Amino acid sequence: MNIRSVILAAGQGTRMKSRLPKVLHPLLGRPMLQYALDIAAAVCQEQPVVIIGHGAQQIEQAFNDKARLVLQEPQLGTGHAVQQAEALLRDEADNIVVTYADMPLLTAETLLRVVRSQEAHSGPMTMLTMLVDDPRGFGRVVRDQQAQVTAIVEEAQATPEQQAIRELNVGVYCFAAKWLWDALRRIPLSPKGEYYLTDLVAIAVEDGLSVRAELLDNPEEGIGINTRYHLAEAMAIMRQRINQRWMLDGVTLVDPATTYIEPGVTIGMDTVIWPNTHLLGDTTIGEGCVVGPNTVLQDSLVGNHCLMVASVLEGARLEDQVQVGPYCHLRTGAHLEPGVHVGNFGEVKNSHLGPGTKMGHFSYIGDAEIGPNVNIGAGTITCNFDGVNKNHTEIAANVFLGSDTMLVAPVKLGEGARTGAGAVVTKDVPPFTLAVGVPARKIRKLEKRD
User: Fold this and answer.
1) Is residue 450 part of a domain?
2) Phi and psi at residue 408, in whole multiples of 5°?
3) Are residues 22 and 136 located together in one domain of the fold?
4) Which of 54, 230, 352, 361 is flagged as catalytic?
């Protein structure tokens, strides 16, 4: 059957108390709406239709190329919202899946179960329900004496007897499209002046048709986000899911409660993650690494058997057996070849360090090409910015830089060159030459070593 997805994202989200639309609030580095799109992709290959309203311009800027966005104006409730998708979907689909953008914990497996249930169902709709003690404002599922679903009653309109019901409407549906579009026009106007999608249950029953309910196995999936407290609650559950998956895949998390791993991260087996470590964005870590404690990796690529302690890596690339830290900062474009060591309080930006190079503490290397087996003494700095341009430094293999060397770019040091402590290098240094002083002067040739 042809299936299409409709995601409701038009609500005002007033309880978030934010200038940012609710569905754009981030969870583990991704806007809330992105999770709804990812789940929809599991049941529908076509781009979902997202109904937007409040904060429409901001949502369009973030998701214009990821979904078919339809503006609901005015915003007259959830039934009216789904109706806005009719022009796009009426002739496209046999079944319509409807979800909410503020339910990021819903899994693809659960949504597929609802779809499969509807495909095997002769009635016009299948809905997802859950049994919990805390209703959290969800509508109550009313059943008759034969346990057939007859209505969904919103909490504000529920009688005391109905408020005692603990089977709740999650807000996930799969509809037969031919029935849906006409039934939407029959939804009565509520006392609040809105058209509720939940009234479709009663309309189906009036038509003499059955409504199927699939019970949610894990009520956590049904958590909707209306407040910042709910946001934190969902984030904690999401972190627990991610951390558990990596531990089951052979990664050691010394303290999962203080380990923050975003969904786009990949980690190799036998890697150990120490407390207070944050792995963010599109970070990939190889096997047998040690990360942390107190380390942040953002959009970085790390090889096998690397060590990173109390450091920050942003857009960096580490090959195998690299050691970093403590207290290092590897910025965008930092590329460290196998066996490189960057000591405490070192910073590297937009630079390539060759195999076996050792960078002492309190050093800064920016916009540089460093060859293999170079010794970068403590306090060495590439003076790469002249106030207008970022200039390049080239250092060949086996160079020895004395402590507190200042390399005033653009400048080149040939193979086997050396600088004395405190040298300010403003001119190129030939291979196997010693340069010392301020400004540095070439004082003698050095013996070439094998």
Assistant:
1) no
2) -85, 100
3) yes
4) 361
